[in-house]
Amino acid sequence: MTRTQMRPIGRTTWHSARRFADRLVTDRRVGISTAGRITLDRLGLSDPERVSYEPSPWRTLRLVLRPDEVCTDDVFIDVGAGKGRVVVEAALHYHFRRVIGLELSPALATVARSNLSTTDGIDCPEVEIIVGDATQYRLPDDVTVVFLYNPFRGATFERFMARVGASLDRNPRSLRIVYRTPLEHERLLSTGRFQLVRQHLPRRPTAAMRKTGAVRLYATR
After folding, report:
1. Distance (Å, rounded) from C-alpha 149 to C-alpha 183?
2. Quick one: fold of 11-220?
3. For the range 118-124, what are the long-range contacts, defined as Cβ-Cβ under 8 Å and sequence gap of 24 or more?
């Protein structure tokens, strides 16, 4: 799952317009259905540190990670894959060797698999959706790019980063994190393993909206 729990005044109309465009334009063109917001309560997964489903805007990855910065040895994982929008984008527009979507909700994972099955033009040799809890999942030791759209906060975020650290200890390597709505920026840096490489700060009506719409790229030191 993805998104932010912060809802500043003035965001409702802007978000409604964005979701409408996603649903009627990009989703329809690609041939999938990923738009809309689903609360954790509806999924039976209520948790104060986890966030409701809302898809990342199309092209989020490409705001900070250029396709020519990815090679056929790279492996991608979207942690909180939801209905699979970013998994589809990674498989369509980059040359990853493998693309993984990790999703806590079995219902959303089923939708993601359906969306993948109807997407034309995917050349990636291996694309899969896995149901699992990121705080208990053993991060594959060949993963080189992790995508997060604010799937969780606080201690849950720390437990996930410990999993990332354990994977790096098992197999030291270059690893990048693309983080949209980076509300746990300080916790990420406090691991001592990553540095901020670049960021995209969007044009939004308010400062709070610009902050939550930020996309940052981190890399191992």
Report:
1. 10
2. Rossmann fold (3.40.50)
3. 118/31, 118/32, 119/30, 119/31, 119/32, 119/88, 119/91, 119/92, 120/31, 121/92, 122/88, 122/91, 122/92, 123/91, 123/95, 124/90, 124/91, 124/95, 124/96, 124/97, 124/98, 124/99
Give the residue among 134, 122, 141 at the shortest CA–CA distance from 75: 141
Is residue 8 scored above 70 in pLDDT? no
Give mean pLDDT, residues 125-141: 97
Distance CA 49, CA 183 (A): 12
* pTM score, whole prediction: 0.88
Distance between CA atoms of residues 204 and 157, nearest Å: 26
Half-sphere CA count of 69, side-chain side, radius 13 A: 17
* pLDDT classification of 16: cutoffs 50, 70, 90: low
The answer to whether residues 212 and 173 touch, using CB atoms and an 8 Å cutoff, is no
195 to each of 54, 109, 174, how far by Cα in Å?
A: 27, 31, 12
What confidence score (pLDDT) does residue 5 get? Answer: 46
At residue 12, does pLDDT exceed 90? no
